[in-house]
User: What shape does this take?
Amino acid sequence: MSAAARVLVLGGGVGGLEAAAALGRHQNISLTLVDRSPVHYWKPALHEFAAGTMQHQGNCIPFTETAAKFGFTFVQGSPVAVNRENKTVSLDTGATLPYDYLVVALGSRANDFGIPGIVDHCMFIDSLNDADALFATFREAVQKARAAGEKLSVGIVGGGATGVQLIAELCKSIDDARGLGPAVRKSLLNAVLIETGPRILPAFPEAVSSAATQQLEKLGISVRTEAMVVGADETGFNLKSGEHIPASLRIWAAGVRASDATNLLEGLERGRSGQLGVTATLQTTQDPTVFAIGDCSRIDAAPIAPTAQAARQQGQYIGRALPDIIAGRAPAPFAYNDRGAVVALGDYNGWGMLDAKRSFGGGLLSGLAARLIHEGLYRQHLAGILGVTPTACSTLREHLSPVKPDLGG
Assistant: This one.
């Protein structure tokens, strides 16, 4: 009987955990998952953690639990070196892990584009730690502004789904917080959303962009389009036009690039934003024993947007294809099934997109459908990890006792 193939998965996000959950069940595979965090979380919900409208309990799943359930080994740490010749990965903990097949699922981070002052003076939400730090800063800023009788100026750069949803969720945080509410928000918050392009939500039809802009403006948010940020300091953002936009709390949510850790895989083809080039079977173009999925991978022949649904489908594909490859069989190529996109502005509104031309949602009731679909995508992923009954109970509990953000009101 041949020894089990050693499979190492770097990154326990949506794609990485889907792959690990599927592969861990195979008797001829010895799987190890590495992640710097002790818990798995749904990255598209980071804006909710950052606003304090989603709690850790029930939404952050310890990797030790998933490892025990699906039969893989979890190691907490971050990769610091990859030796493809010897097939080993070294971690910041001092451990060195061997592999026969390596699955890179390291995700992405915000792209600062080298703009001066962004890294030093802005907050990001690339991880759960980032989101928790942003909420702590937001909470303190709210308390200081109220104590001083001043407005809190918040500036978010990036009019994609992350920036749009985050700025709406911060409004929801104040609206739902004990002792605060919509009236306090209107007198307290001075928020601006800054977008380089001609409209926000450029991946959605223009009608959705227009409706979302109107909804944000109805909440008192200033939406600035065709506003290129060329610098940031401790007082706000500098635009190419020469204008300075004041912001005491500055958040960068513009653009994405592959995690810096992908640079450890020297000699492999990569895209302009750092993504590893892969074939139709998600194997890197220059090393068939290394796979890349999710935001850190790119199929040049058919590029896919960096979304959670794409990462999830690729993780599930690895779970099917890698056992075939190990057994010497040729797997079918990866086929992406685009199920559309959804954007939810807190509880205020929401829209979905079935394809490039057909959208739905908007308005008090029709927007509810989009918001429920947005949540449903997350609950579907959660059910695959925790099981249907625990997920249903968790969902019911959260809806019966919604989170009241602690902003010190």
